[in-house]
Structure formats: structure tokens, C-alpha cells
Design brief:
The chain has 158 residues and is α+β, with helices and mostly antiparallel strands. Helices cover 13% and strands 22% of the residues. The chain has one helix and five strands, in the order H-E-E-E-E-E. Strand 1 and strand 2 form a beta hairpin.
Length: 158
């Protein structure tokens, strides 16, 4: 049998590498710990105002929040009334611990309320608005949809 080459046995196939079970458990535990730490840590440093569901009652009740029903035109308002003069007084004040969106910050109030009041008027009415700035900073009132006779702009410095 000199003419036949000798057959070499095939080398054994390598076994698929298995990751130890402890590695998978460690990875899952690490992900859980990181997720928990991020979830708890994101709220640190933010001052949240107490909500109505809060059990703490040591804060004074919110008096600056305007009732949403104030923005509903009452059925007694005459939309067909003859043009008239309507007068409004806006007293601008500020508080340091308002939280309209849940985060405590300085808040600007008109007549002690936030958001500002509704100006109810008909087309053709004359509006006389007195603004008393009782804040520590200057303020402007910006009007939308109001024709201002004799003015080329719609914001007045108060």
C-alpha cells in the first residue's frame, strides 16, 4: 500500500463556547441596579410642590390658582350689546414659590391669580385697562387681537 496516501483523521470540531450562567446573572443584576439608580436619581435636586394627593398638610393652600370655570363666558353676557366702555384694573404681583407645572419657581400674578383674567368685551367696545405694577421688576402687557387706536405696536411698557 505504498501508493495510497495515508488519511488523516479530521480534527475534532471545537465545542461551542458557553458563557457561564453566573455571567448572565451578573449582567441582569447590573442592568437592574443601573435602571433603579437612574430612576431614583433623576428626581434628586428638583423641588416638587405637594399635590392634592400628598399627605403633608403643613403648607398653606394654593390661593393663586384661577378656577378654569372663569374662562367660560357666562350665559348672561350679552354678545349683541351696543358698544360700551369696559374698565379693568390689573394689579401685577409676584410670589416666589408658585408651582403651576409642579416645579417651584417665581410666579407673576394678575389680581392675585394665575393665569391672568379673561377680558370679556364685544367688537366695538372701548377698553380702559389700568395696570399697577407692584412687582420688583418692570413688566409689559402684550395684547392679542386688540386694535389699539393711535399705536403702532401692541406691547406697552408699564
Amino acid at each position: 500500500m505504498a501508493g495510497k496516501p495515508e488519511a488523516t483523521p479530521n480534527p475534532p470540531e471545537p465545542k461551542p463556547r458557553r458563557r457561564p450562567l453566573t455571567l448572565w446573572i451578573s449582567l441582569a443584576a447590573s442592568i437592574c441596579i443601573i435602571t433603579l439608580a437612574l430612576g431614583l436619581g433623576l428626581g434628586l435636586g428638583l423641588k416638587h410642590s405637594p399635590t392634592s394627593e400628598s399627605l403633608t398638610t403643613d403648607r398653606t393652600p394654593i390661593t393663586w390658582k384661577r378656577d378654569p370655570n372663569d374662562y367660560v363666558l357666562p350665559p348672561t353676557f350679552d354678545k349683541q350689546a351696543a358698544p360700551t366702555t369696559r374698565t379693568f384694573t390689573f394689579n401685577l404681583t409676584e410670589i416666589q414659590d408658585g408651582a403651576p407645572d409642579g416645579y417651584i419657581r417665581p410666579l407673576l400674578l394678575i389680581n392675585g391669580k394665575f393665569p391672568g383674567p379673561v377680558v370679556e368685551a364685544n367688537e366695538g367696545d372701548r377698553l380702559v385697562v389700568t395696570v399697577n405694577n407692584q412687582m420688583t421688576l418692570p413688566a409689559t402687557i402684550h395684547w392679542h387681537g386688540q386694535y389699539q387706536n393711535g399705536l403702532s405696536f401692541s406691547s406697552l411698557l408699564m
